[in-house]
Amino acid sequence: MSAQPPPLLELSGVHTHIGAYHILHGVDLAVPRGQVTLLLGRNGAGKTTTLRTIMGLWRASQGSVRLAGQDITRLPTPQIALQGVAYVPENMGIFADLTVRENLLLAARGARHAGQMDEARLQWIFGLFPAVEKFWNHPAGKLSGGQKQMVAVARAIVEPRELLIVDEPSKGLAPAIIENMIRAFEQLKAGGVTLLLVEQNLHFARRLGDGVAVMDNGRVVHAGRMAALAADEALQQSLLGLAL
After folding, report:
1. SUPFAM superfamilies, alphabetically (predicted)?
2. HSE-up of 94 (CA within 13 Å, CB side)?
């Protein structure tokens, strides 16, 4: 058997404190290159803190975060982004007073105006998310929740990314928009993008996930194949308190 390639992203023994609170208690997590990894767990398990620690928004107090073999634990967030990492937070981070076009332009570092944005890439994004094209010149704050989520993901991928991290991409979305988001993530994966998603919608997780890590009380308590977890109701009940 050939050796498994090293993961694109690897957390080893990561602890994170926020003020006086010890949130992460030694997180070990491997995100294989070119796959979709789901991070599941009950509310308050430490999932969002894990994502924010990866991005350097909160500092690990112990342990390491490695991207493609490079230690990024102490790098500032902008430098982590320059390594080809995009992050869509749970609140989406949309600039409400700016148009959809202006939101994407902010993330296109090589462009000073919309005419300098990569037209082929924009057309690809419009194919993934038709609402982005439809509301191109509308204030982003006027869009629905699902449309804002599409804009947030589109902004994250307006430049090529090696790793896309999204916190609860399906939260509050209508079923038809969830299907659209699933297809978009499938296309990104097919194009070689590695994805790490925090998700509460278990249908979404089962459809997309290659691998899964389940968190509880600031630790990863289970890691394996998503298909194996989806097939084992007893394991789902013990880890998540519910069944897929």
Report:
1. P-loop containing nucleoside triphosphate hydrolases
2. 27
Domain containing 128 equals 94-160
Span 105-111, average pLDDT: 84
pLDDT digits (tens, 9 = 90+) for 149-160: 999 999 999 999
Query: Same structural domain for residues 103 and 150?
Result: yes
Count of domains observed in the chain: 2
- Asked whether residue 89 is assigned to any structural domain, the reply reads no
Q: pTM to 2 decimals?
A: 0.92
- Residue 172 pLDDT: 82
pLDDT, mean over the chain: 92
Residue 5 is part of a domain; what is its CATH number?
3.40.50.300
Contacts of 240 (CB under 8 A, 6+ apart): 40, 41, 42, 202, 214
Cα-to-chain-centroid distance, residue 35: 12
Whether residues 151 and 181 fall in one domain: no
